[in-house]
Amino acid sequence: MAPEPAKPKRRWPWQKEEVVVPLFDDVNCPYGVKPSDLFKVNEEKDMSKLKELGGVAGLCAVLKTDQQHGLDPAGSGDVSIEEHRRVYGANTFPPVPQKNFFALCWENVQDPIILLLIAAALVSTVLGAALEEQRKEGEWIEGIAIWVAVAIVIMVGAGNDYQKDLQFRKLNAQKDVIEVTVTRAGQTVMVKNTDLVVGDVYLVNMGDKVVADGIMIDGFHLVIDEASLTGESDPIKKIPEEDPWVRSGTQVSEGSGRLLVVATGTQVGSARVGWNWSWLSSSVSTAVVACQQQLAGIATARVRQVGGMP
Question: What is the mean predicted confidence (pLDDT) over 278-290?
Protein backbone atom coordinates (compact mmCIF):
# COMPACT_ATOMS: atom_id res chain seq x y z
CA MET A 1 0.00 0.00 0.00
CA ALA A 2 1.07 3.59 -0.53
CA PRO A 3 2.32 5.66 2.41
CA GLU A 4 -0.25 7.93 4.02
CA PRO A 5 -0.20 11.54 2.80
CA ALA A 6 1.58 14.12 4.88
CA LYS A 7 -0.50 15.48 7.72
CA PRO A 8 0.11 18.62 9.76
CA LYS A 9 0.67 18.10 13.46
CA ARG A 10 0.40 20.68 16.24
CA ARG A 11 1.41 19.99 19.82
CA TRP A 12 1.09 23.46 21.34
CA PRO A 13 -0.81 26.57 20.17
CA TRP A 14 2.42 28.56 19.78
CA GLN A 15 4.31 25.88 17.83
CA LYS A 16 4.61 25.80 14.07
CA GLU A 17 2.86 23.05 12.15
CA GLU A 18 4.99 19.93 11.76
CA VAL A 19 4.62 18.03 8.48
CA VAL A 20 4.89 14.25 8.67
CA VAL A 21 7.03 13.04 5.76
CA PRO A 22 6.42 9.47 4.46
CA LEU A 23 9.29 7.18 5.42
CA PHE A 24 9.21 5.16 2.18
CA ASP A 25 7.76 5.41 -1.32
CA ASP A 26 5.44 2.67 -2.59
CA VAL A 27 4.05 4.79 -5.42
CA ASN A 28 7.24 5.71 -7.27
CA CYS A 29 9.13 2.47 -6.69
CA PRO A 30 11.37 1.45 -9.63
CA TYR A 31 12.20 -1.94 -8.09
CA GLY A 32 10.58 -5.34 -8.45
CA VAL A 33 9.32 -5.41 -4.86
CA LYS A 34 7.50 -2.53 -3.16
CA PRO A 35 8.72 -1.35 0.23
CA SER A 36 5.51 -2.33 2.03
CA ASP A 37 5.66 -5.86 0.54
CA LEU A 38 9.33 -6.28 1.40
CA PHE A 39 8.83 -5.06 4.96
CA LYS A 40 5.89 -7.43 5.42
CA VAL A 41 7.93 -10.41 4.21
CA ASN A 42 10.73 -9.42 6.58
CA GLU A 43 8.47 -8.82 9.58
CA GLU A 44 6.65 -12.14 9.15
CA LYS A 45 9.82 -14.06 8.20
CA ASP A 46 7.87 -15.39 5.23
CA MET A 47 10.12 -18.09 3.74
CA SER A 48 7.54 -19.08 1.10
CA LYS A 49 7.34 -15.53 -0.23
CA LEU A 50 11.11 -15.27 -0.18
CA LYS A 51 11.31 -18.43 -2.30
CA GLU A 52 8.74 -16.94 -4.70
CA LEU A 53 11.06 -13.98 -5.15
CA GLY A 54 13.88 -16.40 -6.01
CA GLY A 55 15.60 -16.55 -2.64
CA VAL A 56 18.40 -14.18 -1.77
CA ALA A 57 19.72 -14.18 -5.35
CA GLY A 58 16.29 -13.31 -6.76
CA LEU A 59 15.76 -10.62 -4.13
CA CYS A 60 19.13 -9.09 -5.03
CA ALA A 61 18.01 -8.99 -8.65
CA VAL A 62 14.73 -7.18 -7.96
CA LEU A 63 16.52 -4.77 -5.62
CA LYS A 64 19.11 -4.14 -8.35
CA THR A 65 22.08 -5.02 -6.21
CA ASP A 66 24.74 -7.75 -6.37
CA GLN A 67 25.18 -10.30 -3.60
CA GLN A 68 28.94 -10.46 -4.23
CA HIS A 69 29.81 -6.85 -5.06
CA GLY A 70 27.00 -4.98 -3.32
CA LEU A 71 25.76 -1.57 -4.38
CA ASP A 72 27.93 0.75 -6.43
CA PRO A 73 28.53 4.20 -4.85
CA ALA A 74 29.19 5.54 -8.37
CA GLY A 75 25.89 4.19 -9.69
CA SER A 76 23.14 6.49 -10.89
CA GLY A 77 19.40 6.26 -11.29
CA ASP A 78 17.64 3.28 -9.75
CA VAL A 79 20.94 1.47 -9.01
CA SER A 80 22.25 4.33 -6.88
CA ILE A 81 22.49 4.28 -3.10
CA GLU A 82 20.51 7.52 -2.91
CA GLU A 83 17.57 6.01 -4.82
CA HIS A 84 17.50 2.97 -2.54
CA ARG A 85 17.45 5.31 0.46
CA ARG A 86 14.66 7.40 -1.05
CA VAL A 87 12.43 4.43 -1.83
CA TYR A 88 13.04 2.16 1.18
CA GLY A 89 13.95 4.75 3.80
CA ALA A 90 17.06 5.80 5.68
CA ASN A 91 18.59 3.91 8.59
CA THR A 92 17.63 6.57 11.10
CA PHE A 93 14.89 7.14 13.65
CA PRO A 94 12.92 10.39 13.81
CA PRO A 95 14.07 12.48 16.79
CA VAL A 96 11.86 12.79 19.83
CA PRO A 97 9.97 16.11 19.45
CA GLN A 98 11.71 18.77 21.47
CA LYS A 99 9.64 20.88 23.83
CA ASN A 100 10.08 24.60 23.40
CA PHE A 101 10.71 27.12 26.17
CA PHE A 102 7.04 28.02 26.67
CA ALA A 103 6.01 24.36 27.00
CA LEU A 104 8.72 23.85 29.64
CA CYS A 105 7.49 26.97 31.46
CA TRP A 106 3.98 25.52 31.49
CA GLU A 107 5.28 22.25 32.94
CA ASN A 108 7.09 24.13 35.70
CA VAL A 109 3.87 25.97 36.52
CA GLN A 110 2.24 22.59 37.28
CA ASP A 111 4.56 22.08 40.25
CA PRO A 112 2.47 21.98 43.48
CA ILE A 113 4.78 24.42 45.24
CA ILE A 114 4.52 26.90 42.37
CA LEU A 115 0.73 26.55 42.31
CA LEU A 116 0.60 27.20 46.06
CA LEU A 117 2.76 30.30 45.71
CA ILE A 118 0.64 31.55 42.80
CA ALA A 119 -2.44 31.21 44.98
CA ALA A 120 -0.69 33.03 47.84
CA ALA A 121 0.44 35.80 45.49
CA LEU A 122 -3.07 36.17 44.09
CA VAL A 123 -4.68 36.42 47.54
CA SER A 124 -2.01 38.82 48.80
CA THR A 125 -2.29 41.05 45.74
CA VAL A 126 -6.10 41.15 45.71
CA LEU A 127 -6.47 41.80 49.43
CA GLY A 128 -3.66 44.31 49.45
CA ALA A 129 -5.28 46.28 46.63
CA ALA A 130 -8.93 45.83 47.70
CA LEU A 131 -8.74 46.67 51.42
CA GLU A 132 -8.16 50.36 52.01
CA GLU A 133 -6.04 49.95 55.15
CA GLN A 134 -3.72 47.42 53.53
CA ARG A 135 -3.59 49.48 50.35
CA LYS A 136 -2.37 52.53 52.30
CA GLU A 137 0.32 50.46 53.96
CA GLY A 138 1.41 49.01 50.60
CA GLU A 139 0.58 45.41 51.52
CA TRP A 140 0.02 44.63 47.84
CA ILE A 141 3.77 44.97 47.27
CA GLU A 142 4.32 41.65 49.05
CA GLY A 143 2.03 39.97 46.52
CA ILE A 144 3.89 41.55 43.62
CA ALA A 145 7.19 40.34 45.10
CA ILE A 146 5.87 36.79 45.18
CA TRP A 147 4.67 37.09 41.56
CA VAL A 148 8.13 38.25 40.51
CA ALA A 149 9.80 35.42 42.44
CA VAL A 150 7.49 32.83 40.89
CA ALA A 151 8.14 34.17 37.38
CA ILE A 152 11.90 34.07 37.92
CA VAL A 153 11.84 30.49 39.23
CA ILE A 154 9.63 29.29 36.36
CA MET A 155 11.88 30.86 33.71
CA VAL A 156 15.10 29.66 35.37
CA GLY A 157 13.69 26.14 35.71
CA ALA A 158 12.51 26.08 32.09
CA GLY A 159 15.88 27.40 30.91
CA ASN A 160 17.75 24.69 32.81
CA ASP A 161 15.43 21.99 31.46
CA TYR A 162 15.90 23.30 27.92
CA GLN A 163 19.71 23.30 28.17
CA LYS A 164 19.77 19.82 29.68
CA ASP A 165 17.51 18.52 26.91
CA LEU A 166 19.90 19.90 24.28
CA GLN A 167 22.84 18.20 26.00
CA PHE A 168 21.00 14.87 26.17
CA ARG A 169 20.25 15.07 22.46
CA LYS A 170 23.87 15.79 21.53
CA LEU A 171 25.15 12.89 23.65
CA ASN A 172 22.58 10.47 22.24
CA ALA A 173 23.34 11.54 18.65
CA GLN A 174 27.06 10.82 19.16
CA LYS A 175 26.45 7.54 20.98
CA ASP A 176 24.08 6.11 18.38
CA VAL A 177 26.41 6.55 15.37
CA ILE A 178 28.91 3.71 14.83
CA GLU A 179 30.87 2.37 11.88
CA VAL A 180 29.88 -0.87 10.16
CA THR A 181 31.41 -2.97 7.38
CA VAL A 182 29.77 -3.30 3.97
CA THR A 183 30.70 -4.45 0.50
CA ARG A 184 30.25 -1.77 -2.15
CA ALA A 185 31.50 -2.04 -5.73
CA GLY A 186 33.34 -5.21 -4.71
CA GLN A 187 35.35 -3.41 -2.03
CA THR A 188 35.05 -3.90 1.73
CA VAL A 189 34.57 -0.46 3.26
CA MET A 190 33.56 1.10 6.57
CA VAL A 191 30.51 3.36 6.63
CA LYS A 192 28.35 4.91 9.33
CA ASN A 193 25.40 2.80 10.40
CA THR A 194 23.11 5.66 9.35
CA ASP A 195 24.41 5.27 5.77
CA LEU A 196 23.15 1.68 5.41
CA VAL A 197 20.37 1.22 2.84
CA VAL A 198 18.18 -1.64 1.68
CA GLY A 199 20.23 -3.64 -0.84
CA ASP A 200 23.56 -3.22 0.94
CA VAL A 201 25.71 -6.31 1.57
CA TYR A 202 26.39 -5.98 5.28
CA LEU A 203 29.25 -7.89 6.95
CA VAL A 204 28.93 -8.93 10.60
CA ASN A 205 31.46 -10.60 12.89
CA MET A 206 31.54 -11.94 16.44
CA GLY A 207 30.75 -9.20 18.95
CA ASP A 208 29.03 -6.89 16.47
CA LYS A 209 25.67 -5.34 17.21
CA VAL A 210 23.35 -5.67 14.22
CA VAL A 211 22.04 -2.24 13.13
CA ALA A 212 19.61 -3.23 10.35
CA ASP A 213 17.37 -6.16 9.44
CA GLY A 214 18.97 -8.53 6.96
CA ILE A 215 18.78 -11.92 5.29
CA MET A 216 21.84 -14.13 5.56
CA ILE A 217 23.61 -14.61 2.23
CA ASP A 218 26.36 -16.86 3.56
CA GLY A 219 28.63 -17.13 6.55
CA PHE A 220 30.64 -19.27 8.91
CA HIS A 221 28.81 -20.63 11.99
CA LEU A 222 26.81 -17.42 12.43
CA VAL A 223 25.11 -17.43 15.85
CA ILE A 224 22.88 -14.55 16.93
CA ASP A 225 21.84 -13.57 20.46
CA GLU A 226 18.20 -12.39 20.22
CA ALA A 227 17.61 -12.05 23.96
CA SER A 228 17.13 -8.27 23.68
CA LEU A 229 14.14 -8.84 21.37
CA THR A 230 12.59 -12.18 22.29
CA GLY A 231 13.91 -12.82 25.79
CA GLU A 232 15.29 -16.15 24.56
CA SER A 233 18.50 -16.84 26.48
CA ASP A 234 19.89 -19.38 24.01
CA PRO A 235 21.66 -17.90 20.94
CA ILE A 236 20.27 -19.02 17.58
CA LYS A 237 22.39 -20.40 14.77
CA LYS A 238 21.42 -18.94 11.41
CA ILE A 239 21.07 -21.22 8.40
CA PRO A 240 20.31 -19.65 4.98
CA GLU A 241 17.93 -22.45 3.95
CA GLU A 242 15.96 -22.54 7.23
CA ASP A 243 16.26 -19.33 9.26
CA PRO A 244 18.25 -16.64 7.45
CA TRP A 245 16.57 -13.66 9.18
CA VAL A 246 18.83 -11.45 11.29
CA ARG A 247 17.23 -8.67 13.30
CA SER A 248 18.36 -5.17 14.13
CA GLY A 249 19.28 -4.79 17.80
CA THR A 250 20.62 -8.33 18.17
CA GLN A 251 24.22 -9.37 18.88
CA VAL A 252 26.55 -11.68 16.98
CA SER A 253 27.64 -14.30 19.52
CA GLU A 254 29.78 -16.47 17.25
CA GLY A 255 31.05 -16.67 13.71
CA SER A 256 30.60 -14.22 10.87
CA GLY A 257 28.35 -13.71 7.90
CA ARG A 258 27.16 -11.55 5.04
CA LEU A 259 23.65 -10.10 5.12
CA LEU A 260 21.45 -8.54 2.49
CA VAL A 261 19.86 -5.53 4.17
CA VAL A 262 16.06 -5.64 3.76
CA ALA A 263 14.84 -3.10 6.31
CA THR A 264 16.33 -0.04 7.98
CA GLY A 265 15.36 2.61 10.52
CA THR A 266 11.72 2.62 11.56
CA GLN A 267 10.92 -0.22 9.13
CA VAL A 268 12.84 -2.91 11.02
CA GLY A 269 9.57 -4.35 12.34
CA SER A 270 6.64 -2.73 14.15
CA ALA A 271 7.00 -4.86 17.28
CA ARG A 272 10.69 -4.07 17.77
CA VAL A 273 10.27 -0.38 16.86
CA GLY A 274 7.62 -0.10 19.54
CA TRP A 275 9.99 -1.70 22.06
CA ASN A 276 12.81 0.65 21.11
CA TRP A 277 10.58 3.71 21.43
CA SER A 278 9.24 2.56 24.80
CA TRP A 279 12.79 2.15 26.08
CA LEU A 280 13.77 5.56 24.72
CA SER A 281 10.73 7.29 26.20
CA SER A 282 11.35 5.64 29.55
CA SER A 283 15.01 6.74 29.56
CA VAL A 284 14.17 10.32 28.64
CA SER A 285 11.38 10.48 31.23
CA THR A 286 13.71 9.20 33.95
CA ALA A 287 16.32 11.82 33.08
CA VAL A 288 13.75 14.61 33.07
CA VAL A 289 12.31 13.55 36.44
CA ALA A 290 15.81 13.50 37.95
CA CYS A 291 16.47 17.04 36.70
CA GLN A 292 13.11 18.27 37.99
CA GLN A 293 13.79 16.84 41.44
CA GLN A 294 17.12 18.65 41.61
CA LEU A 295 15.55 21.91 40.49
CA ALA A 296 12.68 21.66 42.97
CA GLY A 297 14.95 22.35 45.94
CA ILE A 298 16.63 25.29 44.20
CA ALA A 299 13.29 26.76 43.14
CA THR A 300 11.79 26.48 46.63
CA ALA A 301 14.81 28.14 48.23
CA ARG A 302 14.78 31.02 45.76
CA VAL A 303 11.06 31.67 46.12
CA ARG A 304 11.34 31.73 49.90
CA GLN A 305 14.27 34.15 49.78
CA VAL A 306 12.65 36.59 47.36
CA GLY A 307 9.18 36.30 48.95
CA GLY A 308 10.51 36.77 52.46
CA MET A 309 9.33 33.33 53.58
CA PRO A 310 11.21 31.46 56.37
Answer: 44
